[in-house]
TrEMBL record:
Its main location: membrane. GO terms for biological process: peptide transport. Its EC number is 7.2.2.11. PANTHER family: NICKEL ABC TRANSPORTER, ATP-BINDING PROTEIN (PTHR43297:SF13), OLIGOPEPTIDE TRANSPORT ATP-BINDING PROTEIN APPD (PTHR43297). This is Nickel import system ATP-binding protein NikD. It comes from Paenibacillus flagellatus. The complex is composed of two ATP-binding proteins (NikD and NikE), two transmembrane proteins (NikB and NikC) and a solute-binding protein (NikA).
Length: 308
């Protein structure tokens, strides 16, 4: 049994239109993802596909008007809000996408030290983490507003990597960092996975993520379309199962920059049937009839009736 198992996770936001009318917009549907001890699962997909929502659902920090359905199991048990309260920051840690999660009133060195739960000495762990990510020695004394965006991001990565967490959710940990620092940050995540942690690595930087990931979850319009092994992202992409995964792969600069025609649908205007069908070269009339189920295929999973 995997350490983290997310099954049929759906998220909707409620809104009041007038005094008594309440409407719900579904933004995530039947999402499926899993991560086991010792592995990095990269989560990729375009902007708005639900990657941060998943991270926030896992940490229990969705806004109050979010309605969550489906199951999240951690270490074999349902991850209830009460259980999360005890696990957050210790067994489950987040590298948030936004640097605004830093406490503006606390020196960043102290913030990182207070996150050390890996059994190490807090000061040593913090200094090692900063040195590894090439933060200057005096950075520890600064407040968040005295840091550049890139430095703040490195502090966030440091915080999560000293936590000793069994599950690390890194939501875009490396944008804007120079390649050497990106390499260090990802190597550290790899090291934590090798020591037994499960890591969800959410990233737009597919190329870098693939270098350290074992498996990849591909998100589209609020659902998982494929779970593949990282090795399937190779050559012309023909090992991949879902047409969107292949399109995403071929859109990378080194694979010819082939753009994907059309746009990801807005949550309020989702097509009937397969969410990718309107942009898919393989689509047939049957694709528009109902949402395809996730099915096992060649050691991975895909949500496409035509996938082979
Ligand atoms: N508080 C909210 N209220 C209503 N809709 C929301 C809210 N938060 C997110 N959404 C919607 O949920 C969808 C998924 O958003 P999410 O932030 O998870 O995308 P993402 O994959 O992380 O994108 P990015 O790559 O840009 O970070 C989007 O359509 C977004 O507009
Ligand atoms: Ni996001």
């Amino acid at each position: 049994m995997a350490l983290l198992e997310v099954d049929r996770l759906s998220v909707a936001f409620t809104r009041y239109d007038g005094a008594f009318r309440q409407s719900e917009t579904a933004v995530m549907h039947d999402l499926h993802v899993e991560a086991d001890r010792g592995e990095i699962v990269a989560v990729i997909g375009s902007s708005g596909s639900g990657k941060s929502l998943l991270a926030h659902a896992l940490l229990g920090i969705l806004p109050d008007n979010a309605v969550v359905r489906g199951t999240i199991r951690f270490d074999g048990e349902a991850l209830t809000p009460r259980r999360l309260e005890a696990l957050r920051g210790r067994d489950i840690a987040l590298v948030p996408q936004s640097v605004h999660y830093l406490d503006p009133l606390m020196r960043v060195g102290a913030q990182v030290r207070s996150a050390v739960h890996n059994g190490g000495d807090p000061v040593r762990e913090q200094r090692e983490a900063f040195a590894r990510l090439r933060l200057p020695a005096d950075a520890e004394k600064r407040y968040p507003h005295q840091l550049s965006g890139g430095m703040a991001r490195r502090v966030l990565v440091s915080t999560a990597t000293v936590s000793g967490a069994k599950l690390l959710v890194a939501d875009e940990p490396t944008p804007g960092l120079d390649p050497a620092v990106v390499g260090e940050a990802l190597a550290r995540l790899r090291q934590l996975a090798d020591e037994g942690a499960a890591v969800l690595l959410i990233s737009h930087d597919i190329e870098s993520a693939l270098r350290v990931a074992d498996r990849v979850a591909v998100f589209y319009a609020g659902t998982t379309v494929e779970l593949a092994s990282a090795a399937d992202f190779a050559g012309d992409g023909s090992q991949l199962r879902h047409p969107y995964s292949r399109a995403l792969w071929r859109a990378l600069p080194q694979n010819g920059f082939v753009p994907i025609a059309g746009f990801q649908p807005h949550p309020a205007e989702l097509p009937e049937g397969c969410l990718f069908a309107p942009r898919c070269g393989m689509a047939t009339a049957e694709c528009s009839r109902e949402r395809p189920a996730m099915r096992e295929l060649r050691g991975g999973k895909a949500r496409c009736i035509h996938a082979t």
